[in-house]
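Q: Hi! Curious about what Protein kinase domain-containing protein looks like structurally. Here's the sequence.
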Amino acid sequence: MARGPRGKRRTPRHYYVAGQAGFDRLAETLAERGVDHLFLHWPGAAVPWPGGEEVVLLVDDDGLPQVVTLLGTTARPGDLRCTLYSVGGLPGSDRNKVAYLPVRRARELLAAARAQPAPRLASDAQRLMALSVEAVYHLGLASGLASESAIGDGYMASPHASAIEALNARCGLWPPPIRLDLESLDGLLGEAGWAPLSDTVEKLSAVNPWLKLRLQVSTQDVAPGLAVYLIRERGLERLDGLREVLVRNGFDVLHEAPIDGEHRDEVADLIRGGNWGRGPYPTSGGLPAYLLVTHDVYPDLSPSKASGASELVDNARVFTVKEQMRRLVNRGQPTSQHCNPVHSSDNAMQAVEYLGIVAPERVDEVVACARQRNAAFASPYPVLADLSEHARRAKVELIDFHGRRAICKTFRPGRERFLEREVKARELGSSLPEVSRILEIGPHYLVFEWYENSLPSILSPKPLFYPHGLLPIWAIERLRSIILHYRRLGYECIDLKPKNLIYDPCKGLKVIDFEFLQPGFQEQDTLKGNYAWYPVPESFPGDIPVSSARRGTYILRWLPYTGLPRFMCLYPFPRPLLEVVRHITLVAITLIGLRRIGRRKIRSMMAGGRAPRVNRRKASIGQGPTA
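A: Let's find out. The predicted structure is below.
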């Protein structure tokens, strides 16, 4: 069934029934063929349908193809206009790109209608609920109903208000008098279990500004950082890998459980508007099969540029993780078999809502745990600026430490081993003037001495097409001494990179990050094979950053700063010789930079010149170690 032109739309596609006799025959044929259906409106109904439709038909998803063959798509004289809705909001039978009614309630309507003889006509109470859902969630102010803050004398002139009042008078579902404004009807529908979940409301807010205002009010602080990932059936075989993606991006799993049996169908009906089809992928990922409740103590507050992300996303990292999960599951699969294996909540409020459906007994425990974790991650001193980059293991802040500037590194829960390595590095390197000094050790944080970073002032010469110059030879010699010092003690400076270096005009060169300092296989008295300039072996049992396991680590990370082949950094060659080699190497570095600039230019042209996203948290003041 063709959806028609893409874009926002309020009204569904219309079909046609061949006159009054055609309606009777349609009702009989649907019953004879065993198609689950219910007429929400029909010719001669006591209360007219506000939109002017003559027939409004709700059908089961499986019966939709049969129904379409019985209806015309062009109007002829005497035909009845028919609006067709399916339970799951399949293309061509949806409303505003979602199911017309909450899926669970729509199924209940069809189940109750099975016992009726043809024609299966909805009761006044059923029509009342359907019209109220349409007015509040699909139309909003466009229904003619006012908001409670703007009710005037003429609000009853709305066709929807008149129809709702007339149907309620006939069935007595809601005791009079009822307030016919959007907020009041929203409350009544919520009490009756007919209000859609926030994920569906969020989609509808694109065409219903009143809903957008309601969502902005309701998404206030629940437990910042909470997120729910629902792993679909096709993603179950890569569950271990999906957990690793979460941990690598700073998330912790607070609760997990399989979704089995009939509960899987119930969850599918209530979440995602009941739509678990293939979406833009060639195949469907299946129904939700596994629950992962996660928490991120340091949400990324920058706007998410991911496809499908809305203004209500409270952690851009959630969508980053979801994209990585999709790539992991689809990697190695034929393109025709690619699918969407995961669905996630958009914000903390939605996460609590999802958890209340899948595991309601866990809601209080999870929310309390998230709040406790957030409190423990709070900065112990007044923050002057946030210097964090990725903050996968810790956030880095410039603080007021008893009246002086200092750097505070607060580690995420479960990442205490990285804190311990920072402390161990200072113990082992106490004799090295280049190792930055710790001022205070807390249970989950460290306070470091702050240094003025003037490193760019000593980087010279500057290769063409590079934003920085080369480290002076004396600095390279000091780096050799630092790495060798730790190797002689049996430790490796894994992930040591130029970004971990700063230069203070008064206190000299400093190394500020030792999160990945770990024992090697044995003590070494040589720089050859060190894990700062060589890839870390796959057999290494400790933590290895992805970038440190790649080939070409030195060329990509260090060569643009040293201007020397790695071999020339391993041994104490005379400075004049190193200077000569650097002048030769500058040519190669310049060519590499030219090629890099060309690639960036091509990518920029292909991307339409989009500007890079800037993290709102990040500042560029003083010392800024990465984490």
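A: A fun detail: The longest helix spans residues 575-606.
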